Amino acid sequence: MSLSSAELGILWPAFIAGLLVTATHVPLGMQVLERGIVFIDLAIAQVAALGVIVADYLGWSPTGIAVQVAALSAALVCAALLTWTDRRWPQVQEAIIGVVFVVASSAAILVLAKSPHGSENLKDLLSGQILWVNPGRLMYDALFYGVILALWFGFRERLGRIGFYVLFGCAVTISVQLVGLFLVFTTLVVPALATFYSRRLRLLKAYAVGVLGYAAGLLLSVAADLPSGAMIVCAIVTAGLLAAFIWRAPAL
């Protein structure tokens, strides 16, 4: 399949955005599986999205710093709440995370009901608009993700519960605006899940699943003229299934 220069101009920023999200969310996703709190990213991402929706409802510029502050503040409040509940009621933490997600989703729907572009905004926050990533913001996103990765790999053992939730909240806040809620969840969970029983070079294998999924999904979406976010989700899941089969085969 040959790509025109215009298509390449659209695809490369989208692919870089996918690489940035993959680089950060794969190691965090492994920790999420270890902690047994798979749906935490959905909850925090939805709360961050609610912050964006409320800021938009108040008339703040979608590209302004106020929206980012609103999203990050909402995510950090959610992270603090989940840190407290995890310490106080660890046995039912997953259920609490589910309730937080449902409440945040319902609140978002209620706010968007008053917006003339509510359904469109909700679709963008869920499935994302990765093909329309602004190349100018990628450098700042890369710096942001770089700090998160440095803190994670450099101080992971000393971060503790609250450090993990705060770091996670920061990562999800920027990612949900970059690629959408569905891709955030898929990137976080699928590569880590696909390599769960393959401990040797696990991180490298998980990164391969994410990178392959983003590359294949973007190319297929352009070739078939289908929504990129949904296609990438399907591609990452397919890559994850193949990886799980291949890397578990000797042990079967």
Q: Distance between termini?
A: 37 Å
Number of strands: 0
Overall pLDDT confidence: 84
Silhouette = globular
| SS element count, helices | 9
- Our Rg estimate from Cα atoms comes to 18 Å
Q: Which series of helices and strands comes N to C?
A: HHHHHHHHH
Low-confidence stretches: none
Structural class: mainly alpha
CATH topology: ABC transporter involved in vitamin B12 uptake, BtuC
- What is the CATH class designation? Mainly Alpha
Helix content estimate: over 70%
Please state the second-level CATH architecture.
Answer: Orthogonal Bundle
Number of domains: 1
SSE diagram, text form:
Layout lengths: L4 H31 L4 H18 L7 H24 L4 H20 L5 H10 L7 H45 L1 H14 L7 H23 L3 H21 L4
Helix pairs in contact: 1-6, 1-7, 1-8, 2-3, 2-4, 2-6, 2-7, 3-4, 3-6, 4-5, 6-7, 7-8, 7-9, 8-9
Describe this structure in words.
This protein has a single domain (5-247), classed as ABC transporter involved in vitamin B12 uptake, BtuC. The protein is globular. Helix 2 packs across helix 6 and helix 3 (65-88) runs antiparallel to helix 4 (93-112). The longest helix is centred in the middle third of the chain and has 45 residues, at 135-179. The mean pLDDT is 84. The protein is built from nine helices and no strands. It is an all-alpha fold and 252 residues long.
